[in-house]
Amino acid sequence: MASGIDAKLALAAATSLVFTLGLSSGAVAQPAAAASRVTVSATVGVGVPQDQAYREIYGRVSMPFTAQANVRIGRGFEAFGGLRRVAQSGTAIWEGGSEATATDEVSFSMTSLRAGAGWLYPRGAWSLWVGVGVSSDAYRESWEGLGTETSGRRTGLVVQAGVTRDLSRRIALVLRAEYVTGSTPPAAAGLDPVHLASFDAGGGIAIRF
Fold first, then answer.
1. pTM reported for the whole predicted model
2. Could you state, in order of their start, the residue ranges of all structural domains in the chain?
3. pLDDT tier at 148, thresholds 50, 70, 90
4. Is 130 in contact with 158 (CB distance < 8 Å)?
5. pLDDT above 70 covers what percent of the chain?
6. Which class does domain 31-208 fall in?
7. 127-152 per-residue burial string, b: 16 or more CB within 10 A, e: under 16
């Protein structure tokens, strides 16, 4: 009789253990990205301006910094908001000018606030992300020799694609590429507008909550 009770208790304990392990393994197998509601990331990288005149003055590459928060709004869908900051200086060359006035020191900076939505596809420790949104850009450009400065705000488009690799349940590496559009008015009469379309690629850290 006692042996029968012991056998039933052992069977019940084994069943409970298997059930508990099953739940635990399921929890571990769930991607961290899918279990998190908010992800905050920061990246720094390389930007490639698309305008030829911009590249001649400021160089062929920039170094944009981005900070972004993604909030899960549904299964596989996220809303995002964040900022992008870029600042550069360069030298403008005036064609036909005298040696003393042939060049001018210029500087350009832009801070962009952006918001949009996208799709997240978690797969194990990896997650893929694509998104699209709008960007409100506050810019400033100064021409030292001309003694002029222009500033303002414009609206552009931002398209993103990225991948993250979990380091732990809370921390992940992030690689993100994006394309931004837009242009500014001329800094002074006779100057061309600055076309701000750029392809950016950067990497950084993401923290999940």
1. 0.76
2. 1-30, 31-208
3. confident
4. no
5. 75
6. mainly beta
7. bebebbbebebebbbbbeeeeeebee
